[in-house]
Amino acid sequence: MSGDGPTLRRPGPGDADDSGTAYLDEPLARCVRELGANVGAIYLCDLEPEMFRLALLIGAPVDFFTPWLRVPLATPTPGTDAIRQQQLVWVGNQQQMVDAYPGVAVAVPYPFVLAAAPISGTRRWGALLLLWPPTHSERATRRERRNVMSTCARLARLVDEHTRTRRYVPPPAPRVLSSVTLRPAAAPQGPAAADFAARLPDGALALDLQGRVTYVSPLAAELLGRSEDDLAGTLPWQSLPWLDDPVYEDRYRAAVFTRQPVAFAALRPPNASLHFRLYPDSSGISVLVRPAGEADGSGSVQRDRLSPVPARVGRLYQLMHLATALTEAASVRDVVDLVADQIVPAFDAHALVLYLVEAGRLRVAGHRGYPAEALARLDGSPLNTGLAPSAQATTTGAPLFLGSRAEFDMLYPGVVRPAGQQAWAVLPLTTHHEPVGCCVMAYERPHAFDADERAVLTSLAGLIAQALERARLYDVQYELAHGLQQALLPDALPDLPGLETAASYLPGTSGMEIGGDFYDLIRLSCGSAAAVIGDVQGHNVAAAALMGQIRTAIRAHATATTSPAEVLSRTNRLLLDLDSDLIASCMYVELDLDRRQARLASAGHLPPLLGFPGQPAQPLDIAPGPLLGVDPGADYPMTHFPLDAGTLLALYTDGLVESPDTDLDQALASHARQLDRNDPGQPTDLDALIDALLRAVPPTGPRTDDIAVLLLHTLA
């Protein structure tokens, strides 16, 4: 493949590297060339947490990647999965893409093979993406895996070195590297190649990978009805309006993605039918054009003259992708992020404000690119005046397209325009004839909204409105559910002499269901306390309600009994008397701070992590009893251990250590290492320790379980 793979064109006078990523060009090009890939891309982290942006691209137009110019880590794509899982992700065929990443498959409905691998050094910098034609093996070879991972390691070292002496700045826009063919180029070849093409019985064109015409033979110009000069440097569907059809552009996109020959027929007015065949490779596309016979045509010709210019196929695919993504947006914040990160770039806008209707006013739900003073003026503007474009569009339900400042000032002479904006699309968000809000997209230059763009934006507004309506309902339910759960957890932990404490509850990130995780610290006397942690089965209101009952029962039994075993036994019998279908794990630890002793009993709960002064922390060896709610005659063995000054005890629920593809013993050992401290017996930043424990949770995607952590540290 070394004879026809991509390499780098040295930047010319107008090719300044504004993004500061030129040091990554050569490793990317070499990897693409050595592995025979069609397309290579590098994503790097953004300044916004958990966000990655396209930095470098080779082998395809950047327009093909518009839906993924900026990608939140939570978005399911091969690249984000590679970053989260820190491993190679291989998609061997189109069906695998449909099964694993339906949103990507909708936006790019072509067969190809894809590899994504993480670029990780001192931090998770990003991901490397490679694409091959569908003729490539569906399985990665050992050589390919080794090359991809070694390239990622080199890229990570380069970014580490680059940022060691300077502040990291993400690239403002992706750089597209030129692909050229590595063939010996003798001086006479240019005229000879032109003479060769002129002698062919078919017309010949050459396109670069961006779709622009780089060569036209005389016969091709004659067949297309334009001069060679008129066609050179243009996109065919722009210089030849009769090719401005999604079907034809789709064939071009298919050729670029699959590197397979494609063919189609088109009618050149008034009645000349032409046959096109595209032959792609890594440097561009060769096109042969020949007559395909005369077409019948009054009807066809008339349709060609009168039909409106169809939508760009890339925009249609973007719309399908965005529609799919909007159905997955759960909260209002998710909708705002999706619109800002994917929809705004797709339409070349530079700023966005998304309003929600609340009590007759427009409230800002989210924005990008708007100055703070403008937001303060816009937030809470009344609907009944109709003076501003956003209020007018919301109340009338009709979109507004303002292509220039002059047009804005003529229609709204008394309204202050945000600085730096020169065109606006004001889209009412309406469902069931009820206004939900308004979406305003702003442009930094005058913008002509053609009929195609207006139609797509209007359709998109309907999808955004539906997503926002669902998201508002979700947010209300989420706040109610988690408000209930927070009300059932302690507001604050009691202060006890000689004991430092800290606790944290972290809800799951997948779905809005609340969990049954709970913790508590109960003062038994001036020198003693009881620490409790547990997890009720299920993620719903019933689980949270039962959690509240168990916590109340434990508090009552803690002051009326003499041992942890008896507390759990009584709580177990109460749970059975409630005739609930749910079960629960629980751990009860009695702390005697005066005697420096502790004893605990466990009802099927994971062992605590215990660190003694000067010794590494490790899981405590315990003998747990049955879960609560299973056996009315269950016994709960007790475990005794000392509480010397400097002892650190960590109680937690299973969400901290259990996850798919994670070994429990390894997870416990990893979290135990987070608890080791340099100064045993001295005050410790327990909140920082909890943060360290939570950071050690493997990032395997949306977290389906809640996490509760309770830390106890004895002082001298």
From TrEMBL:
The keyword Nucleotide-binding applies. Coiled coil: none annotated. Its EC number is 3.1.3.16. It is an enzyme of class 3 (hydrolase). InterPro entries: Bact_Sigma-Reg (IPR052016), GAF (IPR003018), GAF-like_dom_sf (IPR029016), PAS (IPR000014), PAS-like_dom_sf (IPR035965), PAS_4 (IPR013656), PPM-type-like_dom_sf (IPR036457), PPM-type_phosphatase-like_dom (IPR001932). Gene3D superfamilies: 3.30.450.40, PAS domain, PPM-type phosphatase domain. Keywords: ATP-binding, Hydrolase, Kinase, Magnesium, Manganese, Metal-binding, Nucleotide-binding, Phosphoprotein, Protein phosphatase, Transferase. The keyword Disulfide bond does not apply. It holds the Pfam family GAF_2. Residues 1-20 are annotated as: Disordered. One of its GO terms (molecular function) is protein serine/threonine phosphatase activity. Residues 200-233 form the PAS domain. SMART domains: GAF, PAS, PP2C_SIG. It catalyses: O-phospho-L-seryl-[protein] + H2O = L-seryl-[protein] + phosphate. Primarily acts as an independent SigF regulator that is sensitive to the osmosensory signal, mediating the cross talk of PknD with the SigF regulon. Possesses both phosphatase and kinase activities. The kinase domain functions as a classic anti-sigma factor-like kinase to phosphorylate the anti-anti-sigma factor domain at the canonical regulatory site, and the phosphatase domain antagonizes this activity. This is protein-serine/threonine phosphatase. It comes from Streptacidiphilus fuscans.
